[in-house]
Amino acid sequence: MNLFSDIRALVIDSLAAMQAEGALPAGLDMTNVAVEPPRDAAHGDMATNAAMVLAKPAGQNPRAIAEALAAKLAADPRIVTAEVAGPGFLNLRLTPAAWQGVVAAALAAGRDFGRSAMGRGVKVNVEFVSANPTGPMHVGHTRGAVFGDALAALLDFAGHEVTREYYINDAGAQVDVLARSAYERYREANGLSPEIREGLYPGDYLIPVGEALKAKYGTSLLDRHEGDWLAEVREFATAEMMAMIRADLALLGVKMDVFSSERAITASGRVEEAIATLRGMDLIYEGMLEAPKGKLPDDWEEREQTLFRSTAHGDDVDRPVKKSDGSWTYFAPDIAYHWDKVKRGYDQLIDILGADHGGYVKRLKAVVSALSAGRVPLEVKLIQMVKLYKNGEPFKMSKRAGTFVTLRDVVEQAGADVTRFVMLTRKNDAALDFDFDKVLEQSKDNPVFYVQYAHARVCSVIRKAAEAGIAADDTTLARADFARLSHEAELALARKIAEWPRLVEIAARGQEPHRIAFYLYELASELHGLWNRGNEETGLRFVQDGNIPASQAKIALARATAVVISAGLGILGVTPAEEMR
Question: Which residues are in the Arginyl tRNA synthetase N-terminal domain (predicted)?
């Protein structure tokens, strides 16, 4: 049940009736007609912009349209009043029964309440994390992992068919550096002093890799030249790093559906195949780029290059796909990888990248546009940095990692649930401060605690009902006498519950899982407010002594709140709390 969609359907039907009567011209586009909560709750329960949207194409005064529409809407039994405001906005007040029905619907649907079919038949690939397999994941990867996983869950809840994917950057110079770094730890495991020279990875996390190399190879690699052992050690160390990354992701509750390898794509010849495909579209050519704007790099020289004509698909400049030595640029395997995703039949691609990849966005969009003939849109979500604090000071780097705070450091300090929720309390492109003291405090200012506490309070109500011999299972509660929910504070909570299906679609359409976290905080606030009023007004308490019908109606309202909180936390990947300790 989506009450906002139901009332919008009523508005559209009323407009259609006005067209049939000749009060409005035929052929009007109703796409932008919306029904939403008013900015000021004092104005009503819902508002529609129908008259404002249709006035110009209809060639009519917006207030005249609004007044005629108001008369139509007022005839519906769910509508108490329909009032025209300003130049033509229409404010609606609904009957208590309309909001009471939302409580019953939430209990009947359970955690499926709010699920949408808006994405039905749409296959979406969400590629996220994709950290180089050269060490443990850091706090920036943590935020990207949480955002990507929550976005995938949100799209799934909104009806899309979602694949979570990790692109392993296991080709190029960085994995050769990993191999050389692991080899030094292998030498250390064999009793020799490691030479962690500049440019190698210094973290202690490679010590177990060195020991594992010793267990497999003994001393047999010690006297071999680098050219003899590099490929074997590189493959071994990469596999060890990916095992570590998988374990870290599991610690955060993230599970990928697909792991794709850059090395495998490169070795398969798909890069050459992708470039040849673009060449066949006249999008690959030999040419020279203009000099970069501003101060020129010391090594700048004007020369002919193999270029992708990305300006034909919205980019600012064409992009090189080959280096001067004839090898592929970093961009070339990415072209092949995205072409592979297009060929797998996805209807939409989403890449989640660090903010430092902002300059990469247009070329990726251009190549996906070219290779899919404009059929498959690519959205790139950039993840801004996270600043960590503890005891009022910046949180220090991890000795184990060598240069940064790891995902494991954060989760071990704060817990997976807290980490995930807090990482979603800001939009992905806004910087985030993560203060270990604040995220663990038990107060209204801590959104994680506040939402969890609301769910735990409802669980305590259910337990209290059981002790009082009141049946409080969802089936029984769904049949409660909801007319007993007549107080404005109770109806306000029901109205907030009614926003959930609409909020899911808005968040999914905008690819903004942080909206779920914000909404859950607002819903928890309504629940806590009603609870606190019950301390002073006994008639608002969820369990009414000696009055089972009234108790079941009020418990049903609390339980419906918990159903939505549980569903919302499920999207965020957070476990609902049944009690707070």
Answer: 5-94
CA distances from 170 to 137, 148, 239, 369 (A): 15, 21, 10, 26
pLDDT digits (tens, 9 = 90+) for 440-467: 998 888 999 999 999 999 999 999 999 9
Beta-strand runs (E) in 418-484 = 432-435
- How does DSSP classify residue 578? S
List b or e across 496-515, with b for residues whose CB sees 16 or more CB atoms inside 10 angstroms: bbbbbbbbbbebbeebbbbb
Write the pLDDT tens digit of every residue in 388-436.
998 888 887 666 666 678 899 999 999 999 999 999 999 999 999 999 9
Q: Are 403 and 410 in contact (CB under 8 A)?
A: no
Q: Is 53 left (phi over 0), alpha (psi -120 to 50) or beta?
A: alpha
Q: What is d(CA 556, CA 106) in angstroms, rounded to the nearest whole number?
A: 9
Q: Which residues pair with 319 in a beta bridge?
A: 308
Sign of the C-alpha dihedral computed for residues 510, 514, 516 and 518 taken in this order: negative
Q: Which residue has the tokens 């669980």?
A: 459
Tokens of 381: 């979500």
Instruction: Look up residue 357 and give its DSSP letter.
Output: G
Are the beta carbons of 11 and 69 closer than 8 angstroms?
yes
Give the angle subtended at the CA of 197 by the CAs of 194 and 200, to the nearest 5°: 95
Task: Give me 372's structure tokens.
Answer: 């899919």
The number of CA neighbours under 13 Å toward the Cβ of 156 is 18
d(CA 104, CA 557): 9
User: Residue 543 carries which side chain, given as an amino acid letter?
Assistant: V
Strands 378-383 and 305-308: unpaired
